[in-house]
Amino acid sequence: MRVEHLTDDELDSLLVEDQENSRAAEHAASCLSCRRRLGELRRALRPDEELDPPLATRVRVREAALAAWAGPQPARRPAWWWAVAAGLAAALALPLLQSGRPGGAEVDAAEVLSQVDILLAGDPVSVAFPAELVTALAVGRDGAETGDAS
Amino acid sequence: MASVPSRELPVESDDELTLVERARAGDREAAGQLLQRYELSVWRVCRHLLPAGEDVEGAVQETFVRALGKLHRYSGSGSFGGWLATIAANYCRDRRRRARLVPFRSLEEEKEDDVNPLAVLPADGADPERTAMGRQAMARMQRELERLPRRQQEAFVLRFFAGMELAEIAAALGVEVGSVKTHLHRALKRVRGQVLEAVP
């Protein structure tokens, strides 16, 4: 009686799909030759454990990742919130910058800054524009343009 | 991503979901345990999917950091290991895309590709010649893998080196399970010769 062995495609299907109850699987279970071919393929497709990093390396990388992890992230503000906050800050800062220009409107810097402080209290964006920095810029610009070195 | 019926995805054990919940709450030990369970898969995915000469260790660490930062996005419908391996594969894909934009490889890296069989002698007892030949065949298989279309390559590595289920791979690649099978069959056809030569 002629024995029909599994084709390469059938062997591949066994590797790809783990078909335990298929005709191919039944044949492989009873045919030494096909079982051997399947076994060779499975062995060859196993990850090469000798190429895996040593335990010390794995622990070091894992610990580094955990150290870089800041724990659970606080709830994020929606993206539009940042855009609105940045726009508001820019709008409020604009008169300050313009006040140093010739012909610019006279603005009370302290008053504007106090309004900025009130509106942006707790806003992380305001960190980028601390009151001291804005004041220094405004005063410095005034001083430079008027030549006030006294 | 294509929708994959959740019933096809392996459901995680309560134990693992508990670890995920603890990690989400900031439990560093739970997070460490989760990473430890699947770290070898991540190392293997990065080893096989990163462009030649790239820093595997850095890729693994980046994968872990990204995963920990996205823990709140893990739905629990698939395995945590599969989710982690998917993040690794995505990172590697990004690195390959960048490498194609800047296809520079130093001469040192070119030399490293020429595997010297004597440089990888087996540790204990194994036949050095057969092991060396197996290593050479593995290197050839890796080169053949690198020549595969992107999805075939990723499907192959996720299936055989990360041990992911077909449905998980389908979710990772954004394709149907049937497409994953097709990719795997085509990939196997291409690397079959090298695969069999690699058997020690």
Task: Give your account of this protein's structure.
The complex is a heterodimer of chains A (150) and B (200). With 150 residues, chain A is mainly α. Chain A folds into two domains: 8-49, no CATH class; 79-145, no CATH class. In chain A, 62% of the residues lie in helices and 0% in strands. Chain A has seven helices and no strands. Chain A has helices at residues 8-17, 23-30, 32-45, 55-68, 79-98, 109-119, 131-146. In chain A, α2 packs across α3, α5 (79-98) packs antiparallel against α6 (109-119) and α6 (109-119) runs antiparallel to α7. Chain A is rod-shaped, with a radius of gyration of 36 Å. Mean pLDDT of chain A is 75; it is low at 142-150. Chain B is mainly α and 200 residues long. Chain B folds into two domains: 9-105, Orthogonal Bundle (Rna Polymerase Sigma Factor, Chain: A), CATH 1.10.1740; 115-200, Orthogonal Bundle (Arc Repressor Mutant, subunit A). In chain B, 68% of the residues lie in helices and 0% in strands. Chain B has nine helices and no strands. In chain B, α8 (166-173) crosses α9. Chain B starts with 13 loop residues before the first helix and ends with a helix. Residues 1-9 and 109-123 of chain B have low confidence and may be disordered. The chains are: A mainly alpha (150), B mainly alpha (200).
Radius of gyration of chain A: 36 Å
Mean pLDDT score of chain A? 75
Give me the CATH fold name of the largest domain in chain B: Rna Polymerase Sigma Factor, Chain: A
- Please trace the helix and strand order of chain A, writing H or E for each element: HHHHHHH
CATH architecture of the largest domain in chain B: Orthogonal Bundle
Percentage of residues in DSSP E strands of chain B: under 5%
Number of strands of chain A: 0
Helical residue percent of chain A? 55-70%
Instruction: Spell the H/E element sequence of chain B.
Output: HHHHHHHHH
The coarse overall form of chain A would be rod-shaped
**Superfamily at the CATH H level of the largest domain in chain B?**
RNA polymerase sigma factor, region 2, helix turn helix motif
> How much helix is in the residues of chain B?
55-70%
